[in-house]
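Anyone? Bumping this.
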Amino acid sequence: MALTQGLIALFSARAEGRRLALALVALSVLGCSASAVFAAADEEPPAAVTPKVAGKNTLPQVALINQQIRLHWESNKLAPSAPATDGEWCRRAFLDVLGRLPRVDELKRFHDDPAPERKTRLVARLLGDDYVEEYARNWTTLWTNVLIGRSGGTERRSLINREGLQKALRSALQRDMPYDRMVFELISAKGVSKPGEEGFNGFVNFLAGNLMENGVQATAKTSQIFLGLQIQCTQCHNHPFNDWKQNQFWEMNAFFRQTRALRRFEKGREVAAIELINQDFSGENNQPEEAALFYELRNGLSKAAYPVFVDGTKLSSDSGYIADVDRRGEVARLIVGSEYLAKALTNRLWAHFLGYGFTKPIDDMGPHNPPSHPELLEALSAEFKTRSYHLKELMRWILLSEPYGLSSKFNARNKKDDPALGEKPLFSHFYLRQMRAEELYESLLVTTEAQNTQTSYEKQESTKREWLKQFTLAFGTDDNEETTTFNGTIPQTLMMMNGDLINKATSTEKGGFLQRVATDPKMNNAAKIHHLYMAALARKPTPQEIVIANELMLLRKGDPVAALQDVWWAILNSNEFILNH
Amino acid sequence: MPDSFLPRGMTRRHFLQHLAGASALVGPAMSLTTALRANAADLKKRHKAAILLWMGGGPATIDLWDLKPGAPTGGPFQAIGTSGAEQICEHLPLVAQQMHHLAIVRSMSTREADHNRGRYYMHTGYVPNPNIEHPGYGSVISHMLANQTKRLNLEIPPFVAVGGGSVGPGFLGMTCAPFVVNSDGNVRNLPDLKEGHGGVGADRLGQRMQMLASLEKSFVKQERGQSAQDHANVLEKTVALMTSKQMDAFKVNQESEAVRERYGKTGFGRGCLMARRLVEQGVAFVEVDLGGWDTHSNNFKTLSDTKLPELDKAMSALVSDLDERGMLSDTAILWMGEFGRTPRINGASGRDHWARSWSVVLGGAGLKGGIAVGRTNADGTDVDTEPYASQDVMATICKSLGISLETTFTSRNGRPMKIANGGKVIQELFV
């Protein structure tokens, strides 16, 4: 409190030329007084763990989550944080389902609903027809990044057509294609990679870039993404920490040996598209009726491998002739029929909504890495499977669950529940996490109402892709690894303070967002400030914040747009804005 | 109305005093180094630093530093003599002339042959563990040399990664994260404050920062987790950097044409030149990335046509330039990737991942040059002498910089962790 008043005092002091220095001092206080600040934080009364009886309207799957999560709170003797405010919850739900913040009118509609049904209604809207386009756009982005990374298909001569994959995913997500069906398509796809070409099938772009070196990466990525099994280390030796054996890797690899990516060239050496086909595999032993591949043991000896699924299922024939057996089609069937499929997806979606999965990393499951909530993972993935792999159902259960609705504030009795410290997550409060670069981009377009409905979907996506490029660093390795500098370090902050996107979002040009708010005759100063806070933070400004903003209004007298610009710039650069809380 | 403007120096000093007060990073080993250096003026020139030349993808060290001409695994390259006692690849003729400054460790033997795991292990000395994130080399070393960088009034981050992502700060926290820049030396979105931030000028930026500071603080106060405080800390560092003249260290174009030509006008060449400029400015750790070593196919042509010429020019220029400027005796240089490559040459003239027997190169900071440590067998498939691993290399580098190997960190959940994972120093490198 004293600090805030000090700041206000600084503000009104008109010592020209000293403000930057003062601001820096003010800011440096943040670093050194962390512990003091923590001590002064308001103590929230810890909510006792009381068994919550499932209401009439609680879905059984939601009740299941709540009960299982509570069991772990009890056995760890901790109390959950208080529920998040409705505004916080609404902001989260929009970010996690649509990949953007709610607009002010959407927040208002949410708050206008009667309290008991507010959340169920919003979830129904977010997962319903109103938002089907935005839902598909966001999940297309998320799945594309999982399947081919942020840089997949962006380099010259890449075999991957990024737009092709996105087109296929988007159409599947718009139609609400069940997850098992989507996975089957991705693994078994045949056809041409590029939209508009005859025989186009965008799903081929998942495997297109992974078939070099006898499909080693296709084997590794398929297992990791869809089964949650990391078997890539066993390519060269038995796994040092888990039960996977070297033969299992190559037996999985044998399923991909009939697959070929045929290049179609344009302008000399540029790859225009690829066609993914299946063709007879004569085997490294040259016996197509029993086509083997050979791998090298660490002692230098060679061993033969035939298709065997990770659970030990063999094919009826080891023939390499397509007419006898379509190996890739078979592995697609085995994968969608396997017990791993639902578990891996449940773990992935849980991590998306709650910030941490049941295992860390989410795609390395197995006895060597036991999940934090084994019973819940088991039961929830069984429900998901029973409900025909309906992604939106699983999302609905998680969104309406108790842990998703908790505040991100710690209380006195759950301080130890902090997975950032290496502890297993107990989900007794909402874990802070940073918006993704894509979420920031979409949020700024929406909150500043800068969406241009004139341009095509493809054009919008390619503009976004151009902007995102600045953050992606590819390692250039065979497994297409990459990292991002949109990770809370200095380059990100520089972009937030000075980048084009923020300059545009804070622009004062005529007809722009700030100018429209500033000149809106229906709003007085306080209402304008209020509007900015709602748009970015989904909450009202506190009285002190209004005082500070009014000081800025005074400093910029005669230019209210400029004052709003300063407020807006500060809000967009704040931790509260960039962190999903 | 023109914005009045505060002299930069004053702003920064003022700021830095507070920053210094805020920082609780005190490297235990620094008292030792401090004691060794009485003269403050001398200290400005002579300070400890390390440069990691990171070869992403896993270089075929059997074709660079430990050739097996004549063996079935040997490949087509010939070995040539060097200014040291050892022979290296014919496609590194300029580096060969600097080998009296550098030592090859030919008995590296590790277990991680997956890129991700290998990168983590070689950067941290630890294998990946789901429950803890270990800090990378750059974070550890710049953290340990924090007193030194403070004394040098360093306003830019003490750990810079050029052209790659390096490995993060782990439990040391976001303030020890690498500052990642491209090799072109232009830091994106860095405005010139004189022009005014987006046209607003220093004064108005200051007012905005005050408003922002109050927002930051009230959110931190709500006690929602470390990320809120991390954000505030990084904000602070960013503002310091935005106002700093020291940012010139990133501008390799300020060097003469001759110098730029000497390092090579390649990404890696510019990166190495930037590394020298950054170390001169007081940066404690620079990592420069040269990727593209994942040569599963076409290994030899890739090496002789592109990788080795680029490496040869830049690495030799860096070593000789540091030497000529009297900086080499305080600057450790380490060349390595996540692993080596198979002695066996595959059907596509490539080599695959191989961690059992490979090489790294190091020198500077008083380390003995011109020698090779350890030996592999005739076809390069195994090490014949005492094997060394990531933590041993790290221990050796730490010792060369005067960082105590008794240093123990405590992770955020209270686990004690010995620096360099308790690795053993490679004794032959200390005269």
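Late reply, but here is one note on the structure posted above: The first helix of chain B runs from residue 8 to 22.
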